[in-house]
């Protein structure tokens, strides 16, 4: 069962598509820039800021999992 879950998660991670993340106001400002470097920078910054809440939730989840696993051993 664990190998099946790991396989599914691996496939989901490998099958991810690149996404563009911009609010409406940012998009309006960036569309006036013709080089596209500003848009790329803002998209990268948004994605960078988006990952930290998921990392924090994963860390807390792992800590809870580890503490429950250790309490079952005792």
How confident overall, as mean pLDDT? Answer: 82
- Regions with little confidence, pLDDT below 50 for 5+ residues: none
The helical percent reads: over 70%
Report the span from N to C terminus. 26 Å
Element-by-element helix/strand order: HHH
Describe the sheet with the most strands: none
How many structural domains? 1
Helix and strand content put the structural class at mainly alpha
Estimate the global geometry from the Cα principal axes: elongated
Gyration radius over CA:
19 Å
> What percent strand?
under 5%
Number of distinct beta strands: 0
Tally the helices: what do you get?
Answer: 3
Task: Describe the structure in your own words.
- This protein is mostly helical and 74 residues long.
- The protein has helices at 2-14, 24-30, 37-73.
- It has one domain (2-73).
- It is 77% helix and 0% strand.
- The mean pLDDT is 82.
- It is built from three helices and no strands.
């Amino acid at each position: 069962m664990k190998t099946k879950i790991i396989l599914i998660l691996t496939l989901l991670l490998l099958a991810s598509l690149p996404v563009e993340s911009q609010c409406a106001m940012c998009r309006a400002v960036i569309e006036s820039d013709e080089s596209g470097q500003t848009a790329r920078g803002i998209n990268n910054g948004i994605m960078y800021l988006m990952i930290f809440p998921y990392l924090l939730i994963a860390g807390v989840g792992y800590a809870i999992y580890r503490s429950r696993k250790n309490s079952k051993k005792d």
